[in-house]
Design brief:
By secondary structure, this protein is α+β, with helices and mostly antiparallel strands. The protein has a domain of 95 residues. 19% of the residues lie in helices and 15% in strands. It is built from three helices and four strands; from the N terminus they run αββαββα. A four-stranded antiparallel sheet has the order 2-1-3-4. A hairpin with a 2-residue loop joins strand 1 and strand 2. It starts with a helix and ends with a helix. Bound molecules: zinc ion (2 copies). One zinc ion binds next to loops.
């Protein structure tokens, strides 16, 4: 049976695309979660940031202070990592400078795009204790 011209013209119509909301530069490239049989309460852990330097990427721009190096790397580009547990009176830059930060996908909190928000915890005794009591390990 010949195709009905009306149907063809309807088919040729370009589907309306949802306007793309301009999001700020994607923080970290997303990957499919790999099930590796590890027992964790959070879905994914990212490279640590030691004194501002991503453990995977190292120093990227020698002209920048150490605490900004992670902001240049592929994992945390454009992000300002702040420990979620630190006392709000602490200077986040100072915490970055003196700490090893652990970064993970938060198991329950999601951003506007439905992706897990990044949780951050520094290696101070108090923050580690609070993190461990929240996540139970
Ligand atoms: Zn990195
Ligand atoms: Zn902290």
């Amino acid at each position: 049976m010949d195709k009905n011209p009306t149907a063809v013209s309807e088919k040729a119509q370009i589907p309306k695309e949802e306007p793309v909301v301009q999001a700020p530069p994607a923080p970290a490239p997303r990957e499919l979660e790999k099930k590796e049989g590890t027992r964790t309460y959070y879905t994914r852990i990212y490279p640590r940031v030691n004194g501002g330097i991503c453990e995977k990427c190292g120093v990227i721009d020698k002209n920048q202070p150490a605490i900004y190096q992670y902001k240049l790397c592929e994992h945390y580009r454009g992000l300002s990592l702040e420990c979620s547990y630190c006392d709000p009176t602490r200077d986040p830059d100072e915490v970055v400078r003196i700490s090893s930060l652990k970064i993970y996908d938060h198991p329950t909190k999601k951003d506007a795009q439905g992706r897990p928000v990044l949780g951050v915890v520094c290696d101070s005794y108090d923050c580690t204790a609070r993190f461990n009591s929240e996540f139970g390990n």
